[in-house]
C-alpha cells in the first residue's frame, strides 16, 4: 500500500515504519524531523497547520513518481497517524492538548477529503486514567479491555480521548475505516536489557502501565494487520504483548496490587492485564515477542 505515516521519527514510528517497508508498503513520513531509514521518504510537516497537512495528503510521495506521468499525484491508500506530543511534562499541558487534538483533527479531515478510506491513529493506554493519575488508582476490573471507562485526569490522555471521539464522528459521516490503537508502553529491543532487570526486582515500577508493554516490532505487526483488515468501520484496539512486563505471576500481582478488583475471567499464569483479545479476534493480531526471549527469566529457575 501507499501510505502517509505521521510521526515516523518518534520512538514508536522509527520501528513501525521500517517494519511496514519490510512488508512491501511504500511510506511517506510526515514529521518535523526526517526518519533516515532505507526506503522511506520524508516531507517536513507541522500537523497543527491544516494547510500543510491538506497539501501533503494530495502530494507526490517522492521524485520517482514524476516519471509515472499520471497527470498529478495519485491518491494514497491509507494514513497512519502517530505524530503527537508523546506524554505530559514535555510541553506545557495546554500545548500538549492543542497539538494532539488539532493535529489529529487536521490529519483525519485532510485524509478523508483527499479520498483516503483507511485511517489508523495512535490512541493510548493512558485513556483508562491509570498511567498519569494523581496518586494511586486501580482499574475498575481486570483484565482491562476496550469497554473499560476512559476518564483520565491529564492533558495528554484527555487529548487522546477527544481524538477517539473525533475519529468516531468522522467515521460516522464518511463510512471510512478508522481504527484507533490504545498503545501500551512501547519498548524498543535494546530496552529489555537496560530496563527490565529493574522491573524483575521492583514490579511496582510497572503499576502505572498496568504491568503491560508492547514491543515496537509487534506494534508494527498490529499496524500492518489494521492495514490489511477492511470493513470494520470505527474500532479501538488495545495493543500489548501477551505477558506482563514483570516476573511475578498474575496471582501474585493481584494479591499485592489489585486486592478487591474484580477479575472477569480465568487468566494465564503470566497473562497481561491489558487485554489484546479484541485485536486477536478481529484483526488476527499475533504478537511475537516477550521480554523473556531476551533476558534470563527467573520464573524458569
UniProtKB/TrEMBL annotation:
Pfam families: Epimerase. Residues 3-239 form the NAD-dependent epimerase/dehydratase domain. Gene3D superfamilies: NAD(P)-binding Rossmann-like Domain (3.40.50.720). InterPro entries: Epimerase_deHydtase, NAD(P)-bd_dom_sf. This is Nucleoside-diphosphate-sugar epimerase.
